[in-house]
Amino acid sequence: MTATKQAYDTLVHETGGWVASQLEACTRCGMCAEACHFYQATGNPEYSPVWKVELLRRAYEQRFTLVGGFKKMIGLEKEITDEDLKHWSELNYYACTVCNKCSMVCPMGIDLGSLLHGVRAGLAAAEVVPDDLMAAVNKQVEEGSPLGMTDSVWDQRLEWIADEWEEDIPRDVQGADTMVVFSSIEVMKFPTNVAAIAKILNKAGEKWTVSSKAREIVNFGFYQGDEKNTKMFLDRVLEGARDLGVKRIVVTECGHAYDALRWHGANWLPEANDFEIIHITGVLGELVGNGRIKLKPGAFDGNGTITFHDACKIQRKGGHIQEPRDILKVIAPNSFKEMTPNREEAICCGGGGGVIAIKAADPQRYAAFGLKIDQVNSVGAKTVTMTCSNCRLQFTDGVEHFKLDWKVTGLAQMVADSLVE
Amino acid sequence: MNPQAMLEFARGPFFYASLLFMIFGLAYRLFTVISLGWSKDRVPDKGSKAGGVVMSFLKGILIWPFIPWVKNTFNRNPLIYIGGGLFHLALFVVIILGTPHMLVWKSLTGLHWATLPLPIVDWMAAVGIIAMILLLINRRINPVLKLISGPAEFLSWLFVFLPMVTGYMMTHHLWLPYENLYALHMLSVDVMMIWIPLSRISHFIFYFFARAIHGAEFGKRGVAV
Fold first, then answer.
1. How many CB atoms lie within 10 A of CB A135?
2. Which residues of B touch A316 (CB under 8 A)?
């Protein structure tokens, strides 16, 4: 029962007035289910967001409310058990990407994403995080990266990328303005993206650098919901930035990492406010907007329809909604077509929140991707572009799994390919 | 107890006792939630929190009761949107814009305002009652609602439904003598007022917290709510 006790204590600890007032606002109308891609794809009512936060609600009501305490006393409401924790671990880690689409649908406006993160914190404290995800977390703790991108691997990969694409990738430059932190997904699986971002920044004449200390932006502690690990990984990035004396930190194409660093970082580590933290999508918008890079108009027209996939953590939760559109309207004015729903109402890819790292969650993940297939097919797109390499991993895998004939690419890559030389 | 005495009790001491219970109960709930404390948000904003909050309330008030079909999830469960929206609209019209209820407000607060003609209020009451019945059926059928509904949800439904249906019967002098209906209406209102702070009907208080938080969260990120 120690696991339960730890989970309970953490859930209670997570429940300040901010969380409590939202739990109290829930009318149990069930509308959030209609927003959840996992519920839509599988029809399993346990995947409704309201049910996923059930543990947090129970802990809160039993601990803090008279009615909750009374209900527990007369046996109307059960205490949280070890079995519950295992069960909710599957609901929350296999079938939730914390994409926060549910909060767009909630008539009360409850920010379900944050509550779901709170549930993860409880599950993490009870050590019921799925094995695959935990293995990745431990790898990041020990090696500095969940994908095995150790010091020497990072070194070799960047060397190779710089060589292969003939792009300068400045390393550990003291006093650079901008420190770029790539995700290991890009370095290991989408090296073209790294080369593309290097090309763009070099072209713009940006004084930038990467840091061997802050070499991984991915934050598996945030997926896990564990505060200690999340902070440790954030701190590595901030330490790298501090050592080099940079002014701003650019997060590349990783959504969860951006959410953790930009929108939560300073609440855990106040020194995060010493830096401007921005996503590469924001940088692209900025560089195109102020003319530091020029794009060939229509560079991507004529090869079939292109559509843009909104990433939950970069568009809906990150606010970089307009920049990709502005860019696509320049480089693909005739072939860019929006999916519906889009922008902040977009449907998540189904692979975020650590779901793609969990083998046992494959059925849920592929089922959720089915919604994306319908969306893309309904605009007849041949190319799907996006700003998150975790989404891109899910798309690449989904395309292979379902034998689709789409091309999956990234926005930075498209920008790099349409630069006016 | 004869109907006259019952009515006197239900609109007299019992009414005021229930009203006080509701007010103090809600105040207690509010106090316990607020006293849990709010941690300070140190993250710098990208957009405007205040702007987000305003948009959040505007959308909340306009979309659900009046134009629910603009939500892209509307088609997946139209009944819950239309039923829920119309029920709340009906409730507002009857309780605030119905003449007899306005007079109750006046006697309690001294404030008064223009009301709608009876036929309109009456029709809205019927709409509210029908919406409630549909929502109950939906709660028994929809797999998600079946999963998340316990005795408290059905009691909440019952304690809201009784005042509505007895009020409607009163207006139309249906089945029972007027005085009996009036007494039943007042009794059911009293019971409802006791139930409100004990249940999720109190969402009308916490609604303001949740929507403000939603607006602030999206506003700070520079995202349309």
1. 15
2. 223
